[in-house]
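Hi all, posting the design record for the shared folder.

TITLE: backbone redesign
STEP: 1 of 1
STRUCTURE INPUT:
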């Protein structure tokens, strides 16, 4: 998806309605969604191949340019002429986000496009060390696509990281690790998580639907909790010094986690790396990435 930022100043209220009048000064565009996760991998000195769906429109071209500028190939970005490029436009006035508009279609992909995406995955799995599925509930990561991609990656002995959406976690069965936040755990299990003691039962219920996949639950200012076979839950305290904007934090976690696993790190060490990266990205404005130099500085500090 494309993340558009409209920057400006608000000095008065509209005479037409009780809303701010924003005087637009500039517009910027950055990769969003799965593209942001891929850009984050490259910023940490890794390499990423990106597959997904864009529309046949101006925003699709803008997205391709921003992705390529981030050092990621767009060869796997297929065009669906029946849908627009998913675009989130955030209006920022006086340094504060005041409005977000979304352009999107959530209908399932045509079968032929789904087959093309899976064929791309199969062709490219041999040249990578990990697979990430970033699901945003836009109709692309269907149960069939998710299960087939996971099946292919498992056969190739590649770790699989999933950023989930919705309540059907069965489609992620077989993944190495799935990364919901607390609210997503509650929705998927119909259990209310109250306090630290409420998370383990909900996490284990969710893991039963995943048939053993590990869970890395992000808990905002409380950090993360890792649940995996054969180990006690591991709570990882948050690293953020200043939380300014959580936009893109989930993408940062997924990218860093996959990169760590791709380099042979244990799941816990990869989770701790992802936690460090998340702590940096939430201190930035808007959809952002973390560079290797920034990570080293944070680790040295």
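Okay, here is what came back for every position:
SEQUENCE:
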């Amino acid at each position: 998806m494309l993340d558009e930022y409209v920057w400006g100043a608000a000095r008065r209220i509209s005479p037409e309605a009780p809303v701010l009048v924003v005087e637009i000064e500039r517009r910027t565009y950055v990769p969003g969604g799965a593209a942001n996760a891929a850009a984050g991998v490259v910023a940490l000195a890794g390499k990423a191949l990106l597959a997904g769906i864009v529309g046949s429109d101006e925003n699709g071209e803008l997205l391709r340019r921003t992705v390529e500028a981030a050092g990621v190939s767009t060869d796997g970005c297929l065009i669906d002429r029946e849908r627009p490029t998913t675009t989130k436009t955030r209006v920022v006035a006086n340094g504060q986000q005041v409005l977000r508009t979304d352009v999107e279609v959530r209908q399932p992909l045509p079968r032929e496009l789904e087959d093309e995406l899976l064929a791309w995955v199969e062709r490219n799995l041999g040249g990578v060390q990990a697979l990430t599925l970033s699901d945003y509930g836009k109709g692309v990561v269907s149960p069939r696509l998710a299960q087939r991609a996971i099946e292919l990656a498992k056969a190739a002995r590649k770790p699989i990281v999933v950023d989930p959406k919705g309540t059907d976690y069965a489609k992620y069965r077989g993944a190495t690790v799935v990364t919901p936040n607390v609210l997503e755990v509650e929705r998927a299990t119909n259990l209310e998580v109250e306090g630290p003691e409420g998370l383990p039962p909900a996490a284990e219920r969710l893991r039963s639907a995943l048939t053993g996949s590990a869970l890395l639950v992000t808990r905002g200012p409380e950090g993360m909790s890792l649940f995996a076979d054969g180990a006690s839950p591991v709570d990882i305290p948050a690293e953020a010094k200043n939380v300014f904007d959580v936009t893109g934090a989930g993408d940062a976690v997924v990218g860093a986690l996959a990169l760590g696993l791709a380099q042979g790190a244990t799941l816990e060490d990869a989770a701790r790396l992802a936690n460090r990266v998340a702590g940096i990205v939430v201190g930035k404005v808007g959809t952002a990435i973390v560079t290797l130099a920034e990570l080293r500085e944070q680790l040295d500090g």
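COMMENT: The chain has one domain: 33-83+106-300.
Let me know if anyone wants the other runs.
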